[in-house]
Amino acid sequence: xxxxxxxxxxxxxxxxxxxxxxxxxxxxxxxxxxxxxxxxxxxxxxxxxxxxxxxxxxxxxxxxxxxxxxxxxxxxxxxxxxxxxxxxxxxxxxxxxxxxxxxxxxxxxxxxxxxxxxxxxxxxxxxxxxxxxxxxxxxxxxxxxxxxxxxxxxxxxxxxxxxxxxxxxxxxxxxxxxxxxxxxxxxxxxxxxxxxxxxxxxxxxxxxxxxxxxxxxxxxxxxxxxxxxxxxxxxxxxxxxxxxxxxxxxxxxxxxxxxxxxxxxxxxxxxxxxxxxxxxxxxxxxxxxxxxxxxxxxxxxxxxxxxxxxxxxxxxxxxxxxxxxxxxxxxxxxxxxxxxxxxxxxxxxxxxxxxxxxxxxxxxxxxxxxxxxxxxxxxx
Length: 380
What we know:
The chain has helices at residues 18-37, 58-68, 80-93, 123-133, 146-161, 180-188, 201-217, 233-236, 257-266, 273-292, 297-306, 361-366, and strands at 4-10, 44-50, 73-76, 96-99, 112-114, 137-143, 165-172, 193-197, 221-225, 242-248, 309-311, 314-316, 330-335, 338-344. It is of the alpha/beta class. The chain folds into 2 domains: 4-116 and 255-316, 3-Layer(aba) Sandwich (Rossmann fold), CATH 3.40.50; 120-252 and 329-366, Response regulator (Rossmann fold). The strands form 3 sheets. Strands 7-6-8-9-10-13-14 form a 7-stranded mixed β-sheet, with helices on both faces. A 5-stranded parallel β-sheet has the order 2-1-3-4-5, with helices on both faces. It has a two-stranded antiparallel sheet with strand order 11-12. Mean pLDDT is 95; it is low at 371-377.
């Protein structure tokens, strides 16, 4: 008889960022269902779910509930605020949080497995592409919490390293819907591109309003993001005057074999890197438990560090020095309701969450000068 291993799942199905979190939840559910139906899997997963409904204060109750039901591993949380809120609880319990969402970096907990990407794996290559493709005048906008603050701080340093100009930097609360003032500022300045670090509904309001304003002037405006996915495209509709670019480890492009198989298994759904990262988390967890004969975090984590793990994104490994998963990096543009990949890095990117090994040489090259040191660090 197969051993049964508990797993906690902590995603919101409602709230301002429900498109992202709901798609992550779907990916985790599908992975659990596939493992439990598999004739070759050596374990069965007993899933326990908690829905915080997008309320930050509910995440701590959620992780306490899941731990009380025997889960030593929790897949979940979407925003950095919710992750940071529960990390102390996970650490105290000696459990592992499997965090499968892109985040702003500058964190490394022994009790968190980071699977969604950090700036060295998305923001840095995205800005390198944008500064070369669109120009060196950027406007930075974000949600008013650590994701927006840190992502835009890093972006400002990269733009300035290329001797570019940050036109403005502005933050909004979750759910804010009026962006007229900042859009007016975008249009009166020579803005080459916008880095959008808004989350959820605010991002959709902003993009629709920006598109309408650009349409009136008959101009095209590039907008970049590291957290905008396929599951959110229906919320913004047809953006005729915004070039919407996103960066991530996976996109559901035409002919994608994984999403085609998933549609056969689970029907017509939205498949994004929110979905695939949570799906990966569950499958990697199951492989580790099967290999180690149980779910002891003290045994699971070293197994992750010591193995190239087969995933839908290829063979990947969690780095022992920082618990971050190496990931592919692609840049895609939204066209006719889906993303088309326009650039991919030639190999998977190791995570450098504190940017201590990330060179600014390519950004200095854009400015026509050489770095004053062989490898200039982006560290504060």
